[in-house]
Structures are given as C-alpha cells and as structure tokens.
Amino acid sequence: MIEMLQPSVQPTELEQAQRVWSACLGILAENVTSQSFKTWFEPIVPLQLHGGILALQTPSQFFREWLEEHFEGMVTSAVVRVLGKDAIVRYEVTKDEPHPDDERDVRPEPPQPKPERKSFPPQPETFRTANTSSQFGSQRSVDTNGNFQSFLNKRYTFENFIKGESNQLACAAATAVANNPGGTSFNPLVIYGGTGLGKTHLIQAAGNAVLQQSRSKRVIYVSSEKFTVEFVDAIQSNRINEFAAFYRSMDLLIVDDVQFFSGKEKTQDSFFHTFNELHQSGKQIILSSDRPPKELRDLDDRLLSRFQWGLTADIQPPDLETRIAILQHKSKDDGYELPGNVIEFIAANVTTNIRELEGCLISLLARASLEGREVTLDLARDVLKVVVGDLRSPINIEEIQRAVCEYFNIAEEL
To answer: 0.85 cut: is pTM over it?
Structure first.
C-alpha cells in the first residue's frame, strides 16, 4: 500500500508559490519570444499559494493591465496545467516601485542635481527595459556591503548537478575549469545543448566554485541579451570605454546563450575585443549555446573561430537512469519521499528535458498538497496528461503480436 505523501518539512505558501511559478515559467518560455519572456514574465514575483489561488506581484498597474490584455489567457493556461482546472491567478501591484514604462502616474518634480557617476554600471537614463532584473539597469556592480556582484544563482552548484552519461564530458570540463580558471586548454569552454538540459546550471556552478575557492576573483554571469542591452545603453550614454573596461577586468566571464548575438554586428565587435583581451590575459571564458559553434548563423567568422579555440562539449537529453536520479534528488531536496514506482513512471514518460521533468514533479506535489491526496500512479497519470499530453503506452509481447497480425492480416490464434 502506498503511504500518504509526508513532507519532512511542510513548505510555506511562499515556497509553494515559488515552485509553482517556476514550473509555469518553463511553460511560458516555450510559447513566447525571449524578449517578451524577459520583459513581461521574469519581473513577476510569486507571493502566495493558498487554496488553489496563486498570488503574483507585478511592478506596476500599467504592467498588470498590459499583462492581462496580452497574456492573461497564456498565464492562466500555464497555471491550470500545473495546478489543475480549478486554479485561480490573482495579481497584486508593487506600490513603491513603478514600472519604468508607466507614464500615467508620473508627476513633475523640481529638477535635481545628478549624482556623480563613479562606477560602472549605474542606473541607465536613456535606455530602459521593462525587465527590472537587468543587471546593469536596476542593480549595480557592487551590493550594499561593497561586495562585487557576480549575478550567479547560488543554488547552482556541482554538488546538486546530477551527472550522467549525457553530460559527463561537459561536467568534467566545467569542473576542471573551475579548479584552474584560465590555466587549462579549455579556454573558452563552450557548452551546448537543447533547452532545459542543464547548461545554465553547469556554467553557473563553475562560477560558484571559483568564488568558493577565492572570494577575490571577479566573476560575472551575463546572458547575451543583457550584454547587448547594456552595450546599447553604453552607446547612448557615451560610456563605451567604461563598459569595455568593466568586462575586461573579469577573471571569469560567463556568457549564456551566445546564439542570440546573431545579427548584432556592433555587439559582436565589442564582444570580440573583450574576448581577445581576456584570453590574452589568461582569464577564463565560459559560453553556452543551443548548438555547436560551427552551426551558429549570422556570427562573424573571426568570433566563431575563437569560440572553437578551446573545448566544445555537448549536453544530451538525460537517459532513464539519470532522469530517475534527478527526480529522486529534487523530491528529497524539497522534503518529500516519493514512491519508487511513481518516480519511474514520470521518468519513463517525460523524456524531452530536465525543465519539463521538474515541472511535472512540481505539479504532482502541488496537486497532492492542495487536494490532500496520496501520491499514487493514478494521480501521476492525471498530472502528466495535463502537462505532457498523451502518455507513452508500454510495449509488451502481446502488443507486438497484435500489430504484426494486423499488418499481415492473419489471426492471432495461429
């Protein structure tokens, strides 16, 4: 008999909301452009999950109205896929942090003297995006304690990265680079693979490992899109030299999704010179992409050739054993002990990527917690039908015999 799901530590309503919204973001990212995702979904903050109602915080009233007008159906659909058909989305507005594009609440104020700009990058004045998490927009390069900000997610470490045959080379290379940044032949290290396979986790784990060994190292993680946004801002504010000097001062530069440099000639030129400066100075560069460098389009040949100077390692979709290990680790990390047959069932039916795998697990735990149900195979089937659609039918000898007999038009009894 399968026991009732018993968490060792009951998640708070905030933690449940964060897990559910994380699963929703994985769904939304597959259905909108990268720019729309970063602009309209990343700034949303999950607040609470109570009684099937997911409370989300938006930066302004304008932001909320735009979201409801253009993406309400998409957001609701994602939440329903995760929580079930009775789920409800409720928005709350940040009162003390208006959206940068919301001009309706702006009141004229007496002119104030501009503070002297001493460190790059400050709050941009001539170029703003709706993404309040832009690392050179709403945040500075140092925190309130004077420490340099790397913009790494501290949860991404080698310790909680599940290793398997599908990522063995990439993981070994990232570990070698982290142990000796700039001192190996793996410079640059380029890790490529499909969406949701763990590239971002792995490259940030390398950065966190370097900082763990030496807090004095200057390590920064940046997406190619944010690099481009800040480059444009530097042009508009006439601070190109300061922009270049900032990035060239790094000991470890980590750039995610370099495929989005495609077609951006000026940005490519800036990155080319930054790459050269760092490489010649013996500094480490780690890049990620959705495909191998030689298959990238609309990139300068001289930049492509430099991407191939070091080591290029791929990450493949995880095999069954790795998917089972990921689910076991994730459920235990969240304080749950799932039945083995449920884990094996999910792992056998969700094969595309790790993000979808974790999304199904979050949906299952949310349904069980909100409805007070046991985690059984029946509940797992219900959840997976909503999240991934039709489930894979098990193949056995009887199914093979029936298919062969149908094809050759012979009786099964023979």
So the answer is: no
